[in-house]
Amino acid sequence: MTNPVPMRVAIAGEALIDLISETDGRFNPCLGGAVYNLARALARQDMGTLYLNPFSSDKLGQALMQQMVNDGVVLSQPEAIQAVTSLAVVHLNSNGHPSYAFYRDGVADRQVSTAQMNADCSAHAQTLELICTGALALDARDQSVYLPWLMTQKQAGKCMVVDANLRPSVMPDLQTYRKCVHQYLNVADIIKVSDEDLVALEVPGKSPLEKAQHLLNNTHVKLMALTLGADGAWLLSRTEHIYFGKESGMLNIVDTVGAGDSFLAGLLAALGSLKTPDLPLNDLLNSLNDQQAYTCLHHAISSASLCVQARGCVPPTWQQAAEWAAAHPLIKTP
After folding, report:
1. pLDDT at residue 77 in the model
2. DSSP bridge partners of 11
3. Buried b vs exposed e over 233-258: b needs ≥16 C-beta within 10 Å?
């Protein structure tokens, strides 16, 4: 059956089960993975989303697959495979901030090829605008798969989105990992990076904003989002305009799992809403005015704010994020 929603986003990367630690020592299994969360969040924001990685035939893989389908994501690889599902053990600190340990050898979501991803994107070439990846897909051990795919899609004129979302604690060779991540960032048109990611990348600068500006000036990125957790977020443009936003009130934070993924989905959905048939997305990025930039930042922050008030990753719909934004004005000064 042909999906009635045009595919606007193709996304590739990890899908896994988060085993989230509870105060009593037990672990609560939750569907997760940054790229998996981003795919769900984009679909829930009314962006036609194509997920390119396969799922396991085991019970966990089928649960991951079913949730994606329920959220409206289209699977380019709907046939389950025999490889097992990835696992992440997640420990939350007193502020609900997660740390991770991953189990990813021989897992289903890594059973993907450059040729297959390019073929699946070609099938939707007329409507695809955004190509997204990040997080565990930036592992140097998978570089030979994902980076050539991105380069092919970039040459086809698509807008490249890379979510740095680093996991340095689980990478065997940090120097190689950093070098690999920088290669991905050099392909990107849009980058999302956190203050912690900038530290892990060893980007020069006295503050997160200075570090983000240094990264902006040393890549070809057109738009960069810098997230600071509860302290808000910045948008930085190639035209040297910068925009800050922060929630005006306190939030009832349950945990921050999926907050960055919901933020990025909100940002991309808001950008997508500004695009017109005669204005390609890459051209839009070069011509954002102040009002448009703040609208996108506000929608992204609102999307993250709704996510952190739920257990695990529960991305909001476009309507929910828009209603939250309308009721909660941004603070625009750091």
Report:
1. 96
2. 51, 132
3. bbbbbbeeebbbbbbeeeeebebbbb
Q: How many CA atoms lie within 13 Å of 98's alpha carbon, on the beta-carbon side? A: 28
Please report the sign of the dihedral spanned by the C-alpha atoms of residue 187, residue 291, residue 259, residue 64: negative
Measured distance CA(11)–CA(329) in Å, rounded: 31
- Are the C-beta atoms of residues 127 and 158 closer than 8 Å to each other? no
Query: d(Cα 9, Cα 51) in Å, to the nearest integer?
Result: 9
pLDDT digits (tens, 9 = 90+) for 101-151: 889 999 999 999 999 999 999 999 999 999 999 999 999 999 999 999 999
What pTM value is reported for the model?
A: 0.94
Q: Is the dihedral of CA 147, 149, 150, 151 positive or negative?
A: positive
Go through the domains of the chain in sequence order and give each one's CATH number: 9-13+33-79+114-331 (3.40.1190.20)
Residue with tokens 């936003």: 245
Count Cβ atoms below 10 Å from residue 272 Cβ, excluding itself: 22
* Rounded Cα–Cα distance for residues 92 and 105 (Å): 24
State how far the Cα of 79 lies from the Cα of 108, in Å rounded to an integer. 11
Average pLDDT over all residues of the chain: 94
Interatomic CA distance for residues 109 and 137, integer angstroms: 10
Asked if 304 and 262 count as a contact pair (C-beta separation under 8 A), the reply is yes
- Is the CB of residue 331 less than 8 Å from the CB of residue 232? yes
Q: Write the CA distances from 123 to 1, 43, 145, 151, integer angstroms.
A: 14, 19, 19, 17
